[in-house]
Amino acid sequence: MTIQDRLFADMKEALKAREEGKVRLSTIRMARAAIKNAEIAKGHSLNDEETIEVLAKEVKERQDSIPEFARGGRDDIVTKLEEEISILREYLPAPLSERDIRQLAQKAIEEVGATSQRDLGKVMGAIIPKTRGRADGRLVNKIVRELLEQ
After folding, report:
1. CATH of 3-89, one of 1.10.3660.10, 1.10.1510.10, 3.40.190.10, 3.40.50.880
2. Which positions ≥6 away from 137 have C-beta within 8 Å?
3. CA neighbor of 69 nearest in space, from 56, 59, 81
4. Nearest by Cα to 136 from 81, 74, 60, 52
5. Which CATH class is domain 98-149?
6. What confidence tens digit (pLDDT) does each residue in 7-50 have?
């Protein structure tokens, strides 16, 4: 079952749940709309990997919005965003631990033969496809920089 199939099935369940499933329903509908927009932009149906990218982007947008709303004293919106993030994460693969990211980064450094900070772009180009949707890019960048400094 593809991620899009799961989203559709879960949307039907949320519709049946009526009141209890409202946030879940709106989040799933938003995710399906984002996927549909990406399909239109790319001109083809998305595979699971591309769908994961879209969902990860939606999670990141919400995570980036939380501090702004928290500073503005909008705890109601912060709570809603956190709930949406938890719903979206159900459709994403398990996140990588910092240890796993370090191992992937070390392999990427060895693969491209990186020796200094100047090779950061090469290493990031090799590691990002392996971590997409499973790790925050800023954390990956930080770990790669640390390993290159050693």
Report:
1. 1.10.1510.10
2. 128, 131
3. 81
4. 60
5. mainly alpha
6. 999 999 888 887 776 889 999 999 999 999 999 999 999 998 88
Burial 117-135, CB ≥16 within 10 A → b, else e: eeeeeebbebbeebbbbbb
What is the C-alpha separation between 113 and 107, in angstroms, rounded? 10
Residues above pLDDT 90, as percent of the chain:
43
Structure tokens at 35: 């996927």
Check if the beta carbon of residue 96 is closer than 8 Å to that of residue 108.
Answer: no
pTM: 0.77
Look at residue 41 in the predicted model and tell me its pLDDT.
94
Structure tokens given for 75: 């705890």
- Alpha carbon distance 120, 13 (integer Å): 46
Q: Residues of the chain whose pLDDT is less than 70?
A: 21
Task: Determine the straight-line distance between the first and last CA of the chain, rounded to whole angstroms.
Answer: 44
